[in-house]
Design goal:
This protein has about 475 residues and is of the alpha/beta class. Helices cover about 50% and strands about 10% of the residues.
Length: about 475
């Protein structure tokens, strides 16, 4: 997408919101009008926008096909989500964060030679009311309590918006131990969209009503499968509390999703068709799918998913669920080929912990900058983030995007070169120690992913970069 000037941005905003209103009024009757409208205002004839226009018309084709699961997904949003909440999502998430925000980010990148993120993950606190197996936050109970003040959270959002970041996701700890401050941020920044990775146990009727009031907050409930699998990792009774939270939101027609971390132990539960249909039936509109990362000195390595399981999730998402179920799925790390590898280090997102340390990723606990000492822009220009920018992608095989889980040696080299330090609150460790826990899994996935990558249409694009002398960095030799 080419950089939009003020007039074009305003025109596209008006066209998008008009298109949304037309689809809600008469989905099938007005779909051709909406496609024509967006084609007109998205820059038809501008070579910089051709890819976006092709994508727009491809999506329109799905929406106009009876029985298509993407059409059913759009109809779910129309029928199951409060109209004002849906309209706010379209305006803030698509117009502000994509059409307007990404162009503002691009200007920052070009002017300052850095990566300006599309989204920022923030830990408001280390506090959590659960003690989940394999979660690094579970080991912070004995550490000095860490929290960002409301003023610091407000500053992060304000600085981010100035540079084009309109999406903020809260992590932790359990972010809803700070739900009053989260609602306050939503009210202070009605042009932004907020979310949280939450265990769901603190969602009550009052908070659900507050969500309906602000309209720009959408939680992702952490769930590990059905009751036995979820309670085994998160504690007895957690599954039922999460289900109750989903019911409270669905009663109010509030949008929400799920966050799934698959491990060697819960894979069979979360990879089942029954579980994914269960999420759809409960009202989840999306699911973020993560694979377990052994972060923290005592993290159980045996929870790492096997290469067979990671490949199994690859096929489940791509070959089955995305073709049959009306739910949006993002499969980290298996979707690396669609986004050109690793998106951390500010390329698309970054993480700020509860002590103010700015980290490349929620799973990479190393930093050389802190928001209490630098502006966000100065943090983006730090040596560690510059190293990420210079080295991405970390492998020509985009199914191996992660510098830690997939490419042993990449993380330690960048951390050492930047002079960065461990940000673990209780047991700081050298990056080589973390890499060693992932090494065997990395080699197994290197072998298993190669035949999948060979069949990917994205491989041809990667190969063309090599021909042009723009070969992606290959950290490991198989």
């Amino acid at each position: 997408m080419s950089i939009l000037d003020g007039a074009k941005a305003q025109a596209l905003t008006m066209a998008t919101m008009k298109g949304y209103d037309l689809l809600r009024e008469d989905f099938d009757g007005n779909l051709p009008k909406v496609v024509a409208l967006l084609n007109r205002f998205s820059g038809a004839g501008d070579a910089g926008n051709e890819d976006n226009l092709r994508l727009l018309n491809m999506v329109a084709g799905h929406l106009g096909t009876p029985g298509d699961n993407w059409r059913e997904f759009a109809l779910r949003i129309r029928d199951e989500v409060d109209p004002d909440c849906a309209r706010t999502f379209v305006r803030n998430f698509f117009v502000n964060s994509v059409a307007l925000g990404m162009n503002r980010q691009r200007r920052v990148n070009e002017r300052y030679g850095c990566n300006c993120p599309w989204a920022i993950l923030v830990d408001p606190t280390t506090a959590c009311n659960l003690h989940c197996n394999g979660c690094w936050a579970a080991h912070y109970e004995g550490a000095r309590h860490q929290s960002l003040s409301y003023e610091e959270l407000e500053s992060i959002v304000s600085q981010g918006v100035d540079m084009g970041t309109f999406v903020y996701l809260f992590t932790g700890g359990e972010p809803l131990t700070r739900k009053g401050d989260i609602i306050r941020l939503c009210e202070s920044h009605p042009d932004c969209y907020f979310s949280a990775f939450t265990n769901g146990t603190l969602v009550d009727e009052r908070f659900a009503d507050e969500m309906l009031h602000v309209r720009n907050f959408m939680p992702a409930f952490s769930i590990e499968g059905f009751e036995e699998a979820t309670d085994a990792r998160r504690g007895k009774g957690t599954f039922r509390k999460v289900c109750r939270a989903m019911d409270l939101l669905r009663e109010r027609r509030l949008p929400f999703g799920a966050s799934i971390c698959y491990t060697s132990q819960n894979y069979d539960s979360v990879a089942s068709d029954e579980f994914m249909r269960f999420l759809v039936d409960k009202g989840a509109l999306f699911s973020w799918i993560f694979t377990y990362m052994p972060i923290g000195k005592d993290a159980p390595v045996e929870l790492l998913a096997t290469a067979r399981q990671r490949a199994g999730m690859y096929h489940k998402v791509r070959d089955e669920w995305r073709k049959s179920l009306p739910i949006f799925l993002a499969d980290f790390w298996n979707d690396g080929e669609y986004v050109g590898g690793c998106i951390a280090g500010g390329r698309r997102y970054l993480h700020i912990n509860a002590a103010g340390d700015v980290e490349p990723c929620a799973f990479i606990h190393y930093s050389d900058s802190n928001i209490r000492e630098k502006s966000l822009l100065e943090c983006y220009q730090s040596p560690l983030f510059a190293n990420y920018r210079a080295c991405q992608p970390f492998n020509a095989n985009m199914l191996r995007p992660c510098p830690l889980l997939d490419n042993p040696g990449a993380l330690s080299q960048m951390v050492r070169a930047a002079g960065a330090h461990s940000t673990d609150y209780t047991a700081p460790e050298d990056p080589e120690e973390v890499e060693e826990r992932c090494r065997a899994t990395a080699w197994a996935w290197a072998r298993a992913s190669e035949p999948l990558w060979e069949l990917s249409p994205k491989k041809a694009l990667s190969d063309s970069l090599v021909v042009q002398g723009k070969s992606p960095t290959a950290w490991v030799s198989d």
